[in-house]
Structure formats: C-alpha cells, structure tokens
Input
Amino acid sequence: MDAETINFIAIAVIMSFGVVGPAFAIGKIGSSALRGISRNPEASSKIQTSMVLAIAFAEALGIYALVVSLILKFVA
Output
C-alpha cells in the first residue's frame, strides 16, 4: 500500500469513531434525561440544562475528529 491509501484509511477510521462515539453518547444522554424527567417532572428544567450541556460536549468530540481528519486530508 502506498502512503495515500494509508492516509485515506486513517481518515475513514477517525471519522467512523468520531461519528459513532458521540452518537452513542448523545443517545445515552437523551435516554437518561428522559428517564430522569419521567421520574421527577419538577426537575425537568435542571435536567434539560444539564442534558444540553452534556450533548454539546459530546458533539465537540465529533467536531475534533472532523478537524483531525481534515488536517490529514489536506496537510499530510
């Protein structure tokens, strides 16, 4: 294999983990928040605020993977 093929494989692996990881994390965060709201509806505003913050952090990991893959695509 040449260097370009290995580079494309590395980009594919980074993006696959960068998409699947945050997707599972966001699903878990959402299901836990819905479970918490269903058990205690009075705390829904606090739970929703924490949920949005946690989803933003999980989504940031996907964006980091995108940035790394773009660096590999255009620089290396």
